[in-house]
Design a protein that fits this description.
The chain is α/β, with parallel strands linked by helices and 441 residues long. Helix content is 22%, strand content 25%. It has a five-stranded parallel beta sheet. It has a five-stranded parallel beta sheet with strand order 15-22-16-17-18. A three-stranded antiparallel beta sheet has the order 6-7-12. Bound molecules: flavin-adenine dinucleotide.
C-alpha cells in the first residue's frame, strides 16, 4: 500500500537519518541517491566542527545501518523523473543508472581497478586526484562496489574491445551489458534531502582561483586534508611539492552575490585554521573576516578556543573588496580595514570560504515535484507559517541543507522532524476502502 511507503531523495546525513527512523517505525523506505555512494557532503570532511569528531567514524555506522536495513531500498545512481498523484498515493518514476558491476557478486576487493587502462580526473575528489574508468569515488565508499563510467570506459563507449576489468574479476561481477532501468514506485509521502553545494569561487576573478595554484576552494581543502583523500592527507600546494607556511582564509566568498549569510562557513573556516595549525605547527594562519557567525550555543566555546590560538582574526570592512594577487609562488591578499587603510597579508596558500548555495538540479527537481523554491533557489519550506519542514505541496517535506545552509546537527534534527511529520500524516489517513466483490461480500 502506498501509504506504508515513503520516498526519500538524497542519501546524505539528513536523508539517511530520516530513512532509518521511518524504516524502524515499519515504513518501506525508497532512498534515491544520484551518486554511486551514500553519505553526502559530510563524508568529504576529515573531522567535523564543533567537536572535531572523525567524520567517517560518525557517518559510517549510519551508512551501514541504512544499507543493512531490510525496510530500506537504497537506489544509487538514481534520479526521480516524474511524480504523479497526491498525498497518500504518489506514483513516482525513477531512473536507475547502470553500475555495470553486480551489487551481489562484487566483494569489493578492488582487483579490477589496476588493469583498467583509462585514467580520468576524480570529480568527487574535487579533481585533485585521478581514478580509473572503473572506480569507487573515494577509499571507504559505501556501498563498496565500483561503478564503470560509460563515457570514459573504452569498451562501453565503443572505442576498444577492452575486457581488462572483467578478466581481473574472479567473481564474475563485471556486467558490461548492464542497462539503465525505469522503475515505478508508489509512496504516501516524499522527503527531499538533496543537500547543498558551495558557491563557484572561480566566478570571482579578483580572488585568483584558477590563476594561482595556491588558491583553494573549501571542498578542495577538505579533501587535501583528509587522510582518505587524494594526497592521503599530505598538505601540499597543487602542482608543487611545497607545504604551506602562511595561509589566509578569506570569509564570506560569494555572500554579496547570493545575498545571505551561509552561517556554517565561519565555523568551517575556524575548523580549517585548527586543522592547519595541528598539521603544520609552525604555520601562520590568518582569517580575514567581517561578521563572525556563531549561531549555536556550543559554537562560542569553539570560536574562543581557536581565535588567537590557531589563527589571527583580521577585520575587513568589505569582503567584496578583497583581492588576491600573486607572483611566482607568493600570494598577497589585500583588504580594506575599515579605518580608511588598505591592509595586505603575504601568504603561500589562500582558502576561499565560499557561501553555501542550492545544489545543482534543485530547480528541475522542484519542477518535477510541483513545489516552490524560495527567493534564493533553495526548497521553500513553510517556516514563516510555523511549518518548518513542510513544502508548498501536501505530503512533500524537506530536510537538511536542501532547505538552506545548515550544520550537520540542524540537518539531522530537521530530518527527524520530517520523519515525524510523515508518520503523523500517514497514520492519520483513512484506510483505503476495499473494492466490493461482485457478490457484495
Ligand atoms: C566545506 C564544508 C565544511 C563543512 N563542515 C562541517 C562541519 O565540520 N560540521 C558541521 O556540522 N557541518 C559542516 N558542514 C555542513 C554540512 O556539510 C551539512 O550540514 C550537511 O552535509 C547537510 O546534510 P544533508 O544531508 O542535508 O546534505 P548533503 O550532505 O549535501 O547530502 C545530500 C545528498 O543528496 C544527493 N542528491 C543531490 N541531488 C540529488 C537528486 N536530484 N537526486 C538524488 N540525490 C541527490 C547528494 O548527492 C548527496 O548525497 C560543512 C559544509 C561545507 C561546505
Amino acid at each position: 500500500m502506498s501509504r506504508d511507503s515513503v520516498l526519500i531523495i538524497g542519501a546524505g546525513l539528513a536523508g539517511m537519518k530520516a530513512g532509518l527512523l521511518l524504516a524502524n517505525a515499519g515504513k518501506k523506505v525508497y532512498l534515491v541517491e544520484k551518486l554511486p555512494l551514500i553519505g553526502g557532503m559530510a563524508i568529504k570532511d576529515e573531522e567535523s566542527f564543533p567537536n572535531f569528531e572523525c567524520s567517517t567514524c560518525m557517518v559510517a555506522p549510519v551508512q551501514q545501518d541504512v544499507l543493512q536495513n531490510p525496510h530500506i531500498e537504497t537506489m544509487t545512481l538514481s534520479t526521480v523523473e516524474t511524480v504523479e498523484g497526491s498525498v497518500g498515493e504518489f506514483k513516482v518514476n525513477i531512473k536507475k543508472g547502470a553500475r555495470y558491476v553486480s551489487m551481489t557478486d562484487c566483494i569489493g576487493c578492488g582487483m579490477c581497478y589496476e588493469p583498467c587502462p583509462v585514467s580520468i580526473n576524480n570529480e568527487w575528489e574535487e579533481d585533485l586526484g585521478e581514478m580509473k574508468a572503473i572506480y569507487v569515488p573515494t577509499a571507504g565508499s559505501l556501498p563498496n562496489v565500483p561503478t564503470i563510467d560509460p563515457q570514459h570506459c573504452t569498451r562501453l563507449n565503443g572505442s576498444d574491445e577492452c575486457n581488462a576489468c572483467a578478466e581481473a574479476c574472479m567473481f564474475g561481477a563485471i556486467k558490461l551489458d548492464d542497462k539503465d532501468e525505469e522503475l515505478v514506485i508508489e509512496v504516501g509521502a516524499i522527503v527531499i534531502a538533496t543537500g547543498s553545494s558551495t558557491y563557484d569561487v572561480s566566478s570571482l576573478e579578483t580572488l585568483g582561483y584558477g590563476s594561482f595554484p595556491g588558491v583553494f576552494s573549501p571542498l578542495e581543502f577538505e579533501r587535501l586534508f583528509a587522510s582518505n583523500g587524494p594526497t592521503e592527507g599530505e598538505m601540499t600546494i597543487r602542482d608543487t611539492e611545497s607545504v604551506p607556511s602562511k595561509i589566509a582564509i578569506v570569509h564570506c566568498v560569494g555572500r554579496k552575490e547570493v545575498g545571505y549569510c551561509s552561517s556554517v562557513c565561519c565555523m568551517y573556516s575556524l575548523k580549517f585554521a585548527h586543522f592547519l595549525k595541528h598539521k603544520i605547527p609552525d604555520a601562520v594562519v590568518t582569517n580575514i573576516h567581517s561578521d563572525i557567525c556563531v549561531h549555536d550555543k556550543t559554537y562560542q566555546k569553539f570560536y574562543e578556543g581557536i581565535n588567537g590560538v590557531d589563527t589571527e582574526m583580521r577585520f575587513c570592512s568589505s569582503m567584496a573588496d578583497v583581492c588576491v594577487s600573486g607572483n611566482g609562488s607568493g600570494l598577497k591578499v589585500n583588504y580594506p580595514d575599515g579605518k580608511g587603510k588598505e591592509q595586505a597579508v603575504e601568504v603561500d596558500m589562500v582558502i576561499l570560504a565560499a557561501a553555501i548555495v542550492p545544489t545543482e538540479g534543485t530547480a528541475a527537481l522542484a519542477g518535477i515535484l510541483g513545489i516552490e523554491l524560495d527567493g534564493f533557489g533553495f526548497i521553500r519550506s513553510l517556516s514563516e507559517n510555523i511549518g518548518s519542514i513542510e513544502t508548498s505541496r501536501e505530503g512533500i517535506f524537506v530536510a537538511g541543507s536542501a532547505e538552506g545552509p545548515k550544520d550537520i546537527q540542524t540537518s539531522v534534527i530537521q530530518a527527524e522532524a520530517a520523519a515525524g511529520k510523515v508518520m503523523a500524516l500517514l497514520s492519520a489517513m483513512p484506510e483505503p476502502v476495499a473494492a466490493e466483490s461482485e457478490t457484495g461480500e
